[in-house]
């Protein structure tokens, strides 16, 4: 659909990207966005015929897990999407995968130290889940913190993190200034900062309507504040990945220049040859819709120079997480019920969070408790179930966990119509299964829980996640 771009925006492109401006303007005004998704290597789809993934036609050059589609499938009505088997993500943003594979081997992390990663502006979760998959390929049990300022977007982020199924992650909500309480904590900080959204103009007509030079200036000022906050939390020798979905140099090269001049950051070169179609301009790697199958993205990497080791940060043993005596009593009562709900190859510590029994990987317990004491944590580890009197009701995050013990519950494989009815949170009939909590599967992968009562089953899918049509 033709897109009428602001005249001042076109002039800006001609000034900032003179060689590429004409073709970029033509692409933004006259071409449609590409469609892509990224596979979850922790949740391989056993039977491709049950998923729209079977229609993927081409791989994304800079992400082994990325796939393109010739047209947009009906993702909403594909159970594999809701099972966390893949994430619908714009292809340019998948570049975080290759960037991490370039910088992680350079980190001076001591043996026995687990990598700590912060995605500071994480919603809706595309780059965070991509980072999780890449980091798991290179390091054992990384600690991933995903933060979002906006309340509504933070809930979307939480949902997508839960569906991805990684146990070593926490979702926080709040301003980035709160991370100053964790100086030198993270080995890698990623900041896909709020921006003027020029790179989204082909996908979202509102991006064109809202754009103005004043918005660019306002965003750049906000970005400088965010980066100032995050620099404090980066460990010596660590890396900051800065990105925007915009084209102008004020919000891109201008911010990287500030990092170098004011904070002494060391620029890290990203070779455009590793990202076919992308171009290098000064300190940034740029993805332009006229040159790649993807939307606008600018990304740069800098390093915090220091002779100190990345692993210097130490945390004292955290004593409790604010659990009351009542919580501890409930925990002791419920533990025998659900101790075997997760696989035994990872050690967990258990706690009660708002009447929800939660499992934290032992290797991250102290760090997660520290983060929880300083920040607004809305999810961490694996939520197992909600306390209901003397019982505990398994919750969706357990079904989505890659460490779910598949022998802990009876399983029923359902057909497509039943799977969609479940995802709409509709009433379900009875199943040929024992009474009690039953795990429904589709395509051999966990879908979610029901409470089987014999002639009917109570649908336990989260109300807020249900398909509405």
Give a written overview of the molecule.
This protein has 469 residues and is of the alpha+beta class. It has three domains: 297 residues, 3-Layer(aba) Sandwich (Rossmann fold); 94 residues, no CATH class; 60 residues, Nuclear Transport Factor 2, Chain: A. Helices cover 29% and strands 26% of the residues. The strands form four sheets. Strands 5, 6, 7, 8, 9, 10, 11, 12, 13 and 16 form a ten-stranded mixed β-sheet that branches. The longest helix has 21 residues. It is globular, with a radius of gyration of 23 Å. The mean pLDDT is 92.
Describe the structure concisely for a colleague.
Helix content is 29%, strand content 26%. It has helices at residues 7-16, 21-30, 79-82, 95-103, 126-138, 151-164, 205-210, 213-233, 253-263, 325-338, 365-374, 396-400, 416-423; strands at 35-39, 58-60, 63-69, 86-88, 116-119, 143-148, 169-173, 186-192, 234-244, 266-268, 279-281, 284-287, 297-303, 348-353, 356-361, 376-380, 382-388, 391-394, 411-413, 428-429, 436-442, 445-452, 456-459.
Layout of helices and strands:
Blueprint: H1 7-16, H2 21-30, E1 35-39, E2 58-60, E3 63-69, H3 79-82, E4 86-88, H4 95-103, E5 116-119, H5 126-138, E6 143-148, H6 151-164, E7 169-173, E8 186-192, H7 205-210, H8 213-233, E9 234-244, H9 253-263, E10 266-268, E11 279-281, E12 284-287, E13 297-303, H10 325-338, E14 348-353, E15 356-361, H11 365-374, E16 376-380, E17 382-388, E18 391-394, H12 396-400, E19 411-413, H13 416-423, E20 428-429, E21 436-442, E22 445-452, E23 456-459
Parallel strand pairs: 5-6, 5-8, 6-7, 8-9, 19-21
Antiparallel strand pairs: 1-3, 1-4, 2-3, 7-16, 9-13, 10-13, 11-12, 12-13, 14-15, 15-17, 17-18, 20-23, 21-22, 22-23
